[in-house]
C-alpha cells in the first residue's frame, strides 16, 4: 500500500521536484550574463507549489507509517524513493 500511494503521489510530485531542482541548479550555477530576472521572484511561486505538496505527502505517509510493519527509518527512505520513481522515469525515457 505504501509503495502504491507514494508512486501515485509522485505523479503530481514531478512538478514540485522539478521546481526544487531548477531552483537548486540556478542558485549553484550563478547568474547568466543575459539573465536579468532575479531568482528571488521564483521563491514565492515555488513555495505556493512545493509547500502544499510536502504537507500532503507528509500527511498521507504519516497515516500509512502508523500501520506499516517496516522500521520507521526504512519506511521513510522507501517512501521517498518511491515518490521519485515517476520523475526518474520521465528523465530516463524523455526524448
3D architecture notes:
With 95 residues, the chain is an all-alpha fold. It has five helices and no strands. The protein has helices at 2-10, 14-29, 42-67, 72-83, 85-93. Helix 1 packs antiparallel against helix 3 and helix 2 packs across helix 3 (42-67). It is elongated and about 55 Å long.
- What is the N-to-C order of secondary-structure elements (H for helix, E for strand)? HHHHH
Radius of gyration: 16 Å
Q: Helix count? A: 5
Give average pLDDT, whole number: 89
* Total beta-strand segments: 0
Query: Strand fraction band?
Result: under 5%
Anisotropy-based shape:
elongated
Major sheet characteristics: none
| Helical content class | over 70%
Termini Cα gap: 32 Å
Runs with pLDDT <50, length 5+?
Answer: none
Kindly name the structural category: mainly alpha
In short:
The protein is mainly alpha-helical. The chain has 5 helices and no strands. It has helices spanning 2-10, 14-29, 42-67, 72-83, 85-93.
Notable traits:
95 residues, elongated, 5 helices, mainly alpha, 76% helix
Which helices and strands occur, and which strands form pairs?
Layout: H1 2-10, H2 14-29, H3 42-67, H4 72-83, H5 85-93
